[in-house]
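Hi X.,

You mentioned you wanted examples for the new student's onboarding notes, showing what a folding record looks like when two proteins sit in one file. Here is a clean example. The first protein comes first, with its sequence line followed by its structure tokens.
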Amino acid sequence: MVWKMISVASNNLFGSLPKHICRHLPNLEALYLDGNEFSGQIPSIGECKNLQGLQLSTNRFNGSIPRKIGSLTKLRTIFLYDINLEGEIPWEIGNLQRLEYLSTRHMRLVGSIPASIFNISSLKDIQLQDNSLSGNLEKIISLFLCKLPCMSALSNLEELYLWGNTLSGSIPDSISNASKLRILELELNLFSGLIPNALGNLKSLEILSLWSNNLTTKTSIHESSFFKSLENCSYLRFLLLSSNPLNCVLPTSLSNLSKSLEEFKVEACKIRGRVPVEIGPIPHELCGLKRLYGLSLAANELDGPLPACLGDLISLRKVDLSSNKLHSSIPFSFWSLKDILEVNLSSNHFNGSLPFDIGKLKVITNLDLSRNFFSSDIPPTFGSLQDLQVLLLSHNRLQGPIPESLDDMLSLKVLDLSNNNISGFIPKSLERLSYLKIFDVSFNILEGEIPNSGCFVNFTAKSFMNNYALCGSPRLQVQPCKNNIPRQNNKALLNAFKYIIPVFGSVIIVVALIIVYKKWKNKSTSLAIVEDPVPIRDWRRISYYQLSRATSGFDDNNFLGSGSFGSVYKGILAEGTEVAVKVFNSDLDEAFRSFDVECEVMGKILHRNLVKVITCCSTIDFKALVLEFMPKGSLEK
């Protein structure tokens, strides 16, 4: 039997291969063993003279690439990626003049790239990324190119991946001889010097990725025309230059880049100046890039307003303009990008109001507007952003309450409203945000009880520090709440007390005054009024500690009701006497004045229809009356 192909890819085969596998398979043309668990060293394959396809990737082979691979002159494809090989790439690979695809990525290869590889004119795809290869690429390529009269090397190359190594030197101009090149990825290396204008000769270029090197676009004697040279690359989709010291302004020629451009990144490139007007309000320039998917200009020195025409880029999904000096208000047109997913405008000088139109961004997942100068209320339309996972509005000048509509943002994981002027209460309804993991409202002027259920169980004191008058659990390092009735859940009850209690209070006072008047006028005995039956000075005073113990720490279970000036709790004194404890609200001056009046009036009145005052407790910040407990319920009941 004559074997020409062995293909057992994507199984669970294991073990080592026979050392002389090719001795018994001299006619083998294809050996596809990728996607298994074979181990050991790659066997001698020099005797497979007819081999055209070799795929051993994604296994557990170790050792190095066998040098005899260079004798397989009919090879067209070599795939050795994602295996544990080390050592150098054999220079003998340069003998494979029919080779079209070479992939030795994601391994531990070291040393220089053999210059002979760039002498293989048939190569279409070179993948050497994510290794530890070193050397000066310009010198490596020039070793062969300078000897070729027709410059035929690299003439068929379409994809070149060298990222994630330690290659150095300049990017060679001669790389432009690869006239069919579509993808050039050289990021995460040590390249330096000017980005060559010759890259503009790569008219088929779709992806140019040079980020995280030490490249620039200018020298001390001239300004580079690199961006202008890319006008020839009419198929360019991705231009990624972040984390290079470009040290330039954005040129007006940027507006003439390919209309196919989807992603443009120049983060942390020391870019300065304004966003050019040529790529701003002129619709047929930047706004003509209808397929632009991502725009990232973060960590530069851009200033001026945000171009209004960004709202016309309907394919835009990601915008990152953070850490610049952009100012003015954000154009209303920007919030019409209803399909945008991520927006980061943090650390700029934007001002004005957060618009109600922000609710149109129905599919947005990340929104960061922190560290600006926004000064409005938080629009309730935020509640319609039901896919939003991260909302960062910290370090602004926002004011007003936290909208209760935020409880509709059921996907929310991070909410940061810290360092603003937000007031009012924390809506208890936010407890239903089950995915919320990070919550920060510190350094505001919030008040009232901190919610204590749902997602709030996991938040710490850091989330609430430096606010006006928040209260709650001791673990949150805030003052205890004097009235633990959840405000949002008892609105009807509070409204009832708001109107009913003053009415009954007025009735009691009127009755008391009438009694006093009749006593003085008629000396009547039927409604006997005893002047000062128990003088205030003779009342047996009681301490805060005794009252707290009598009411179980003013527990909700002992709560009887509340009025405009305080709350009433049932208590049992140490001797067993049941009492009603009326605690006056320490935050209201009127409440403390009411305490003084009630002490004066109620201490002088004794009547069968009025509750008897037993004693009182009065300190600088706590005042309470201890009244006779009425076991048959309130007047309302």
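Then the second protein repeats the pattern, sequence line and then tokens:
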Amino acid sequence: MSDKPAGFPKPSSIEVAKGAEAAQAAYPYYMQFAPEDDERFWFYNSMHFPEPMHHFDMVTAEAAYCALGSSNTRVHCLPTTLGIDYRVINGRVYIGGNAVTDPAEIERRTEEFQKRAFYYYEHWERLYDQWKDKMRKLIADAQELPKPELPEFEPLENVHAGKGVASNHYLLETYHKTLEGYFRMWHHHFEFLLLGYGAYMVFFDFCKKAFPEITDQTIARMVAGFEAEIFKPDDEVKRLARRAVELGLEGKFAGDISAGDVLASLEQMGEPGKEWLKELETSRNPWFNVNVGDGFYHYHRSWNDDLSLPFSAIPGYAAKIKAGENLDRPMEKLKEERQELIDGYRDLLSTDEERGAYDQMIELACRVFPYVEGHKFYCEHWYTNLFFNKIREYGGLFVEHGLIDDAEEIFHLTRYEVEQGIVDVMTSWSNGSPTRGGKRFRAMIAERKKAIEIWAGMDSAPALGPVPDMIDDPAIVMLWGITRENLDIWLNGPADANSNEIRGFAASSGIAEGPARVIKSVQEINRLQEGDILVCQVTNPTWAPVFQKISAAVSDIGGSMSHAAIVAREYGLPAVVGTGQATARIQDGQRIRVDGARGVVTLL
């Protein structure tokens, strides 16, 4: 009899942490596991939600999976997959896909998909330009939303104009508009994204059949070397570093000096300082509307809110500029390599029909692929930052009216509780009585703060429920890096647990050796030193300024087309992703070797 486990723990077997029961129960009912969920496979989405979720922040999962499912299931009608279900337990988000397996239904959906998706592929550039206009309009609308505040008396001009609606009504209207805009943004986010992946996946499948020995990384390199907005913030930091060197100001950024002190010092510098500050303003709008995380947590603030991340990168960039090093991404090299690979593999095809199909597929993949990263700047970063800052304004309103003690505490409330608080404030202003929710909110916030602490110290099961016979959703493999092999490692431990090697996806070629810096959260990235190898659950494109310090990157989660893998290739940095166990097995400071071409990390 085999002692191999039959599967991962059932969701119903996961106990809520002692002391966090009320916090768990506060998440909306549709996010809670139910008995019928025991029969399904779920995995912890540590790529997008690597930290316990504050109650308000769960709106990011709500809005994202609502829009993703709509795009998959109803708009573009993907033939073999519907949307994604999500649940939250002990602050961690688990997701499970809904597959289409009936051949007749797949055929029916394929007909719909072709009528819809092919139109997008044929008119990609026009529709994408239209998409940018829609996003800019959505951003402008969010920027124009009024600050939620209440005067002592209704302004006289409103009364004399016969406006007929008092100021407290607009607290509710603005809140609804804020939420509506955020949900709408996620629909825009997925309008092109899945089609971008789809075009690449069709080409990927063709290559795997036509060239059995080809690696995932080689196929990925055939679409490398592209321009996308998500790389612009880092390009702007490099530009500012160049100007600092030209103006003789690079010394102002050295050491542990705060961003505020740097700004104050530059203002007193006369013309050179004023010139650099003018350049900073050019970069800040819009390119510093990028946050230090992936856009899913309220406390992952934008560079505009906290200049310390971009400023901390300037000394390293300035030193390399003075040493005559080239800071630019190796675009020409990537493009040349891309074309050599495309031509080389094309020559291996034996018929004109195969070559024609190959040409068509790679042309489409290269046309649509820049969107896969480009959309992130507008959606997860610029818009999401505006959204959370608007909620922060409501936090300030709640402090002013005695509901909470600190504006940041509003994020411990669900979006439904925030609306209750708004109506409490509206009522208080209208009837002259104090707000009624302060005692209630303070007790809930204290419970939830404690719960976040408890959950942050707990290990979470990487997956729940029965093990699927196969992982046939290419997005789950390419984006999250979840394969049957990985599931077996999660279940039974690595077969080579005593080996000094850890295997993952070969994300970006090259070999690097150095001390491992195990980074568990965004707050720790300032621990990275020159030459370190970044080891983390998942890397983030907006950590690009620290890429100039590190020599390689290793992640627990992620496939060959994860954001981490794409960015590593674009920067020419060796990377191994989807190891499933790097942060558990590698000690902080331990010397390791990363072989990005083979997907192997060696503990030295």
